[in-house]
Amino acid sequence: MATMARRGRGSTGNARLREALVGYGFVLIPMAVFLTFFIYPFFYALYISRFDWGVFGKIETLGLENYRTLLDDELFWRGLKNTLLYTAAVVPIQMALGLSVAVIVNAGIRGRTFFRSAFYFPSLASSAAITAIALYILSADGLLNSIVGGQRPWFGDSDTALWSLVGLNAWTTSGTMMLFYLAALQAIPTDVYEAAAIDGAGFWRTFWKITFPLLKPAHFFVSVVSIIGAMKLFDQAYIASGGSGGPNYSTLTVVLYLYQTAIKDVNFGYAAAIGTALFVLIFTLTLIQRLLFGKAEVA
Amino acid sequence: MRNRLLLPALLLGLVLVAGFAASTSQGVTDKTTRSQASGEVTLSGWASSPTETKLLKEVIRGFERTFPSVKVNYAPISGDFTAAMLARFAARNPPDVLYVDSNVAPDWIKQRVLFPLDTYISQSKLKKEAFYASLLNGFKGPDGKIYGFPKDWSPLAMETNNRLLAAAGVKAPKTWDELRAAARKLQSKVPGGRPICLSPSWDRMLAFVYQNGGTFLNATKTKSTVNTPAVQRAAEWYVTLINQGLAGTPAQLGVGWCGEALGKEKAAIVFEGNWVVPFMAESFPNIRFTVNKMIRGKQEGNLAFTVSYSMARDAKNKDAAWQLIRYLVGQPGMKTWTSKGLALPSRRDVRAPAGRQNFIAAAPAARPWQFAPTFSKVIDTANNELSAVIERKQSVKAMLVKVEKVSNDALK
Amino acid sequence: MATDAVRIDRTDEVPRRAFGERVRTVLVYVFLLAAALLYFTPFLWTVATSLKTLPETVGFDLLPDNPSLRAYREALTEFNFARYTLNSAFLAATITAFNVLLCSLGGYAFARLRFPGREFLFLVVLATLMIPDQLRLVPVFQMLTNWRLVGTYQGYIAINLVAATSLFLMRQYFLTIPKDFEEAAKLDGAGYFKTYWRVMLPLATPAIAAVTILTFQGTWNEFFWPLIILGFGDPDMYTLQLGIAQFRFQYQTLWPQLMAASVIAILPIAAIYIFFQRYFVSGVVSSGVKG
To answer: Between B199 and which of B18, B204, B296, C85 could a Cys-Cys bridge form, CB atoms 3.0 to 4.6 Å apart?
Structure first.
């Protein structure tokens, strides 16, 4: 049934005002929390990045010098390269794994609850426990080497350390990605599948031509969240390298470098500059994704 | 008769009374200072081992018995201690007494988050001279003031596996050449053929650099001295042991650190500090090992790892905090604390428990593991460069040039 | 699903088709089981370690020589395990409840209500995800100190009241719900809140289940902010992860006890997950409203 046409200035104006007020009302508390505990600290960081800032505050005004130093900072660029490489590798794997597993456990297979639980298990454990286990499995005489042979210390070799992190995180977060996709799959009405079946479409065609496109809002969500999470990698890089970003700078991520600068060197101003630079980069990446997926937003 | 004796007696009595009154008033001053200190004191640090935490709690109970008006709130942090402390310093809400690793002391002193203790020291009977000078100097600021007292310390020693050395017919080496010879004989006795465990980090290699007469910084800490032949020779010797297969890094041996290599018998010779002793006792009680004196190169050289009890500048209860520090690093406090041999006393007048003499013997040659403010980045760089050298991706000389540059940049 | 309809059509070609399909099904199950085992193995190893003694944890054996529950007993008695679990449960439940409510409300607004600056505010929400915790540490801690919220549950809950990920997720999900439902509700004269409460929320059960699972588990497993906010205060207020961390020391970790505590810690969130994953059931939404 067609909706009632609501064209008419007076009532539309009031209705729009009401809608806007309700809209603001609904998002009030969340925005207050975000502004207080996220945006304000960000502007705080932006502010102190213009100074040599110590524990108790301003030591010296530097203007944009921190950023100039940043441009010449070998360690920062190395960290950035590692982070981008890591993100480019881990995000597609996470998404593909998550989606595949979600589609499989969403289908009418037996033992659905069992499989859903099994695949989600790594996400349940705390990152410290998982990394400890991974360090064990990937040590020079750990489980992985006993299967594939060799004596290679996966986290101790600068050629494989970063990729070991990719593997570790792709595996642990695939469960969470599965969760996101599982939820999104439920929003696809069943009659869509029924119509496809009547048209004689098989499993793969249904998936690629119907399911996959209908998941666009979910793709946007998963890719944005994955990329942001990957760009912020810290915990596992810290644990695997003992905080040094080694061996040979291979596990130095931008946030690890930020941490070293802030906590070990107590150089809050420079750390803030690093954080601001990272933010700008992630923001740009997200905007690009928004533009790419933008059409799907208007559902 | 009575009259003639009366005056001297009276005088003597007067003198005695005066003397007694004087000494009592001194005692009264001490006692009033003690009783004035009251309220709550927060003590924070990290937890090194379960037994150590128990011992510390025992010492604290002793303190609370001696000073009943002071209550100690002991809050060990089992996580990122440095980050938690910095947040607290910045918010001006720090614990009153805290651990300070000698590694971070230069930064924290420079940031003025610690309170200089000299006034309290002069008012008390604490003898600075009782502490090993090299350790205490680690907590002196550039202004010469004392910002903490070392609570314990440890140098490196050479731990050897008794069974493996006996099987190879090898005695504990004493020099660089003897070490190499011993390693050759031990190669067949360990799985993997790398009988020495060497950590790919400067917090072990520097000891050997010292043994070859090299240094990291000059005496006044104004210039990097790492790009010198003495340092290069030592670093090359260290790396060559690994590259020739006589030594392995923990990663190559499949362990997290060299102590674990000793315990799992993947290495027969390791260089670790006193902390390895309780670790072996709890995790690998069946492995018999010996703590030998550190080997020597051209000279003796060693590193001292130490932690202090310090007072925060924004401590709310400074008097009570001082009493706590004084007690903890006083003779009786330190004696209890180090009684189980988990840490070595930093005072000369407290005897270490049995079996620790080879650690203590290293005291004269041991230099504190610390440099200058903002040097943690330099050390991270140095370690990363060293790992590149070990992976044969660059030469020792290139590493030293790099480290020199980064050090001098940080010293500016 | 579609395959059911397909099978019905091809019954006349049963023998060869059915065999091919059966082989494929078996292969799929074998692969799934192998994958599930791969995912489960670390957990099995965690349990195995919890039954060992410390020297035994040296190797990677999945079977302890002399399995004993000593580690569990120690974990439960040595520190205030019950209290920590209660604390964690309270915090997780509270924060989850707030998140579900506020994020679904906000997500609905961002998806369906029009107000000036909506897209900009949404970008602000996304922007909060891009700020690393380490950067926020000092200013947030200073704020909480000034407001005397350090060492309190209120402080910890306040900073976790809403999570951008959850709000984002709800918004995306609401976007996929056909507008017909709201329009029907409007015709029935429902206001915005009623539409949200009576119509949209029930339709979004899969997303709510996802937010519940993620928020509960995220809070349960979180270590950094509880350490910073609660770490110096009353040990009775510690969360489970802070308690478990007490088994970590500078030069060693008491693996059996830590794993035992971790196993016990996983059980509640595993239960939450298994319970809520049943809401991931197809067919909740059907577009049969048309007509």
So the answer is: B204
Cβ distance B82 to A246 less than 8 Å, yes or no, reads no
Contact B83, C225 (CB under 8 A): no
* Minimal-distance CA residue of chain B relative to A56: B90
* Strand, coil or helix: C99: helix
ipTM reported for the complex, 2 dp? 0.86
pLDDT (tens digit, 0 to 9) for every residue of chain A, 299 residues total? Answer: 344 444 433 457 888 898 999 999 999 999 999 999 999 999 999 999 999 999 998 889 998 999 999 999 999 999 999 999 999 999 999 999 999 888 888 876 778 888 888 888 888 877 767 877 788 788 887 778 888 888 888 998 999 999 999 999 998 888 899 989 988 888 888 888 888 888 877 777 888 888 888 888 889 999 999 999 999 999 889 988 888 998 999 999 999 999 999 999 999 999 999 999 999 999 999 989 888 876 545 43
Closest CA to C257 of C50, C93, C45: C50
Beta bridge partners of B100: B308
Which stretches of A201-267 are DSSP H helices?
203-206, 212-214, 216-231, 235-241, 254-259
Fill in the amino acid letter for A108.
Answer: G
Q: What are phi and psi of B347, to 5 degrees?
A: -110, 145
- Give yes or no for a contact between B196 and B332, defined as CB atoms under 8 angstroms apart: no
Q: Which residue has the tokens 């080496």?
A: B173
A185 vs A75: CA distance, rounded Å: 43
Measured in whole angstroms, the distance separating CA B236 from the mean position of its chain's CA atoms is 27
- The answer to whether residue C164 neighbours chain A at the CB level (below 8 Å) is yes
C227 touching chain B per CB within 8 A? yes
Q: Which of C2, C102, C103 is closest, CB to CB, to A203?
A: C2
Q: Which long-range contacts (CB under 8 A, 24 or more apart) does B10-17 make?
A: none
Taking the C-alpha atoms of residue A236 and residue A130, their distance in angstroms, rounded to an integer, is 9
| Å between C162 CA and nearest CA of chain A | 6
Q: Nearest CA of chain B to the CA of C260: how many Å?
A: 17
Q: Would the CB atoms of B79 and C223 count as touching at under 8 Å?
A: yes
Roughly how many angstroms between the first and final C-alpha of chain C, as a whole number?
24
Question: How distant is the Cα of A240 from the closest Cα of chain B, in angstroms?
Answer: 10
C residues 25..54 contacting B (CB < 8 A): 54
Q: Which of C150, C237, C249 to mutate to test the interface with B (most CBs of B within 10 A)?
A: C249
Alpha helices in B111-228 (DSSP H): 118-123, 133-137, 162-168, 176-186, 202-211
